């Protein structure tokens, strides 16, 4: 039962840690085209989409060789390894 609860918490943990890492770095914040709360919701959506193996994002995210692209790629791999 405890292992099941741990497996369920992997995806939300990946989402929160990925969004936090993206917001802590200057390069991650520079990937946002919209400042403020709307830009944060775009980053949060991109990270949660990557952690759930979807990979979509809002239009206000720069994806050309940004740190956010690296974060979302790592999240795809981590989520794929989970199963």
From TrEMBL:
One of its GO terms (molecular function) is hydrolase activity. One of its GO terms (cellular component) is plasma membrane. Pfam families: KdpA. Keywords: Cell membrane, Hydrolase, Ion transport, Membrane, Potassium, Potassium transport, Transmembrane, Transmembrane helix, Transport. InterPro entries: KdpA. It is an enzyme of class 3 (hydrolase). It comes from the Bacteria. Its EC number is 3.6.3.12. This is Potassium-transporting ATPase subunit A.
């Amino acid at each position: 039962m405890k292992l099941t609860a741990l497996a369920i918490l992997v995806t939300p943990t990946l989402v929160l840690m990925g969004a936090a890492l993206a917001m802590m770095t200057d390069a991650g914040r520079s990937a946002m085209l919209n400042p403020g709360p709307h830009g944060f919701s775009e980053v949060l959506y991109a990270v949660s989409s990557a952690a759930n193996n979807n990979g979509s994002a809002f239009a206000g995210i720069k994806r050309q060789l940004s740190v956010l692209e690296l974060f979302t790629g790592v999240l795809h791999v981590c989520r794929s390894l989970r199963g």
